[in-house]
Amino acid sequence: MDFSPYIAELLYTYDCVIIPQFGGFVANYKPAHIHPVSNKIFPPSKQISFNKNLKQNDGLLANKIAQQQQIPYAKAVELIENWRKEIEHQLKEKGFFAFDKIGTLKKLTDNTLLFDAKAEENFFQGAFGLSPIVVKPVTETKIIPVTAKSGSYKWLQRAAAIFIGGMLTSYVLFNYDTIAHKGGQLASFFKGETGRYTPADKHLNVTPVLDDVVIDSTGQTAYLKIKGKSPVVIANTSQQPDSTSVAVHSPELRYHIIAGCFTKKSNAKKLAKELEKQGFEPKIITSYKNYYTVIIKSFATKAQAKSFLPQTKSLIAHSWVLEWNV
Length: 326
What we know:
Shape: elongated
Strand order of the largest sheet: 14-15-13-16
Radius of gyration: 41 Å
């Protein structure tokens, strides 16, 4: 049985899928780029490579097969082992093995493995629906100056003068009343006459006279005294200011560096103790597909997790990044 489709499906979500005791497929992000010869613009993608050193079973592929085929986990591990033997046999006999939708693994004369990924497959979910497009290179554009003949240039000058004169005449005719009113105001100003402003509401001509601002014996309340009126409170310093506390939310740690997944808690604890000896602070969770998953460290962003990953790979070669809400 060929389990290549399961690996291809997992590569859309995960950055590493391991075939136990054989090797692992690693997906690295590749930004959009332009081919210098074909002038094609390729969307961002995941570049798939093969690493023969990733051999320890992390449970990812076996768990996928067990769920899809509704079989026990141990049976899925047995099927993967049989498939691994089939792959190695075909590499020995034919010199290559084709993984459907992923690529072809070739065995060279010096027994080294060469992986050729399928270029048409894009496992980056953010580029779903995008396909390469061909663009034409920009060529040099010649600018041809256009010179107007002397006769046509004079005609344009006359037309512009007539247009501006017509606009000014129209403005004066439609705004005659406003111009005449303002002109009269200016004329009275230059003749020395004094303009008079008449308020619309004649009952607003009484201005209250302020006597004083009085502060009571407590020193906390200020009153404004107005003639003929009761004192009015204008300040009360006894009131407490509003709270200025700011709620601080710690970022959600969704990206975790995984050391391994186990069906037995004792194995997970054993690995966690080894990591503690190396100076890490690992933790064990069971929310990820009901496995005892050993987390080396958690981060808020995927970029932070990937930058820290090389430090763990020097000790645990099969460590990988998992996006999961713990």
